[in-house]
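Moderator note: this is an archived Q&A kept for reference. The question asked for a predicted structure of one protein chain; the sequence and the answer are reproduced below.
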Amino acid sequence: MKQWLLAVMCLICASSVAFGQDFWMPSDSLDKTKFWGLNSVAAVGYTGATIGLSQIWYKDFEKSRFHLFNDMGEWNDLDKAGHLFTAYLEARWTHQAYRWAGVDEKNSIIAGVVIGSLFQATIEVMDGFSDKWGFSLGDIAFNTAGVGLFAGQQIGWGEQRILLKHSTWPTQYPETIITSVDGSQTTTLKARAESLYGTSLPELMIKDYNSLTIWASVNLRSFDKRENSRIPPWLNVAVGYGSQNLYGGFDNTWTDEETGAVFIVPENVAPRYRQIFLSPDIDWRFIPAKRRGWQIFLQLLSWIKLPAPGVEFTTHGKVRLRALAH
């Protein structure tokens, strides 16, 4: 993560020097160079992402006729929270990009909704033709809710008072031994997690449902418009959703693809449960920065929830204070 953030910061700062501060300032009226440049980037990005997903993600799985798949409840619905977050972020960033190019507010909102929906719907169509997955109406519903959350705030308030954020914290998986149902093989929870989620940082951020949390971060000052308000403009309160002990989609049962051995994790060994977090947060958009490059960098940070003290509530009825809620 540190290396990724450093790379983004360096890219923005270098671009500020190369193009000058004026290039990065939002245009008051339509700038055709920026506008068509954005359209080109969007078209290339969409085409590249579609081809890349098709070749890298889907090519190793069998194709089928288009079909539906009800995956509500799978992965304790963290996948659905991810769809909500991703669609929201795509719509919000698209809106900001087109406003930067001088497109009016109404059409920038429409662009955000359309592009956010299009990118997510494309993935669903690919899933619909994959034998392993299927077209999920639940995913579409959460995609729609994500772009709707963005558009509703922008139309109603003219700003984003509630930000959706993402946090990741590595899970230390136990070496607990799990024996197959027929007793012929053994594995460990750590080995299962590594084969399921991977071990690299990008895999951790995207795939490891035990390690990620999706947050709704509320800017308190935005709801208090008094001139003498003492609430710091950068102070947010965030509500997070996470889950633990997920070693399978709907339950902790899986079949080894090579041997056909079936493994079942006993409930008393690794009980699945959901988590709700309550934690303070920083709204990076309101951290003072004079240079436009730093302003853009702080905007990019606004989708990340940094670890902070908080309270955790679980579906097992437990409540505990956390030195770092993540």
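Archived answer notes: The longest helix spans residues 32-58.
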